[in-house]
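Sample log: UV-damaged DNA-binding protein 2.
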Amino acid sequence: MTCPHRVATEHGVVPAPHVNTQNPVEFVFERQLKPRITPIKPAYVIPDQVDCAVIRYHSRRVTCLEFHPTNNHILLSGDKKGQLGIWDFAKVHEKTVYGNIHSCILNNMRFSPANDGMIYAASSDGTVSCTDLETGISSTLMNLNPDGWQGPGSWRMLYGMDINLERGVVLVADNFGFLYLVDSRSNSQTGKAIMIHKKGSKVVGLHCNPFQPDLLLSCGNDHFARLWDMRRLEAGSVLANLEHRRVVNSAYFSPFSGTKILTTSQDNRLRIWDSIFRDLDSPSREIVHSHDFNRHLTPFRAEWDPKDPSESLAVIGRYISENYNGTALHPIDFIDINTGQLVAEVMDPNITTITPVNKLHPRDDILASGSSRSLFIWRPKEKFDVSEQSDTRKIIVFGGDEKKRGKRSKDDYDDDSDDDKFNVKGKNVKVKKPVKQMTHRKAKR
């Protein structure tokens, strides 16, 4: 009774929570995982000025982007034709595009954890490839359409993709609701296909938890995101079903703790679950945002900022246009997912196309964007020196417009359709000098 360290609860002090908790998983979350998240939110650094760009870099629209894991200046990009682009944006003008890897849409890319010179890719032609970035030599790890085109009812396309580091397997999912495992050591499929979503629906996203790789998050066209345990991965063994009103374009675990979930749905909503250890029947928050796209666009996906320790910043392109000084622009939005506040909207008066593909650099304050066939690199304004701000910035234009004015072929009309299946297999294209170069002066906002 006379101990000076004794605290009386009647004077406004609340006893320590979860001491007598009946849920050990939640107790572990509070004691071990939650301390990874900094309690003080750092100031956001927004890349809001175009540093460099390549116009018409791809022959079709950009579908995915990936930064090199060790070289900060290398950006990889895939397009609707199945081409793989490697761009050193420090040199700007050099162009390397491998066009003989896939015959149609390159949907997802992941670097090999054992060799940063190799990249895995999943395509709508039903193949998983492993490509040497230096030589462009590619090997096919799995082909779901060995007999070729047999009609739309049997043609399998691969969309979602991720790598389980602990198990050494590449996970891919198709347009019939099945998950496939490919052993990265033997470069062959392991086990049987597992149905993880409604039969006949696309599984467009896969993500392994960064701290517990056996936890797998999937999402698809059946209006669900689902949580799985890979140690007991079989049909019907789902841990949680995260219901949405429409198609789910993407679902990601948070990068630092792996305890939050961020999803993007075509009902113009971003949904956030603050903890995977609590009730997942309904999201913690829903944020209204314009990203309901049509079939002529790559789907919008909200992604975490991998450098934000507070796990509160996400980036996503905007579908609806805004009038900025008489010009209709489609900004790229940075959103605080804790409050729903619009932190920043990034735009440039020279970019009038929609920018659905955006990727934040894992180490630098850089944003890469894919808009139509072009690539853009954004940096914060404060990172530019005064001398650099007065100089011109490099905007490189590769080639001419491939579509001739006047008559258009059927392929031109269907160029941006996600349902097309391209059979053209090109050759490696390496252009060391741009056909045309122009300068881009800083625009007054």
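Observation: The longest strand covers residues 188-195.
Observation: The radius of gyration is 23 Å.
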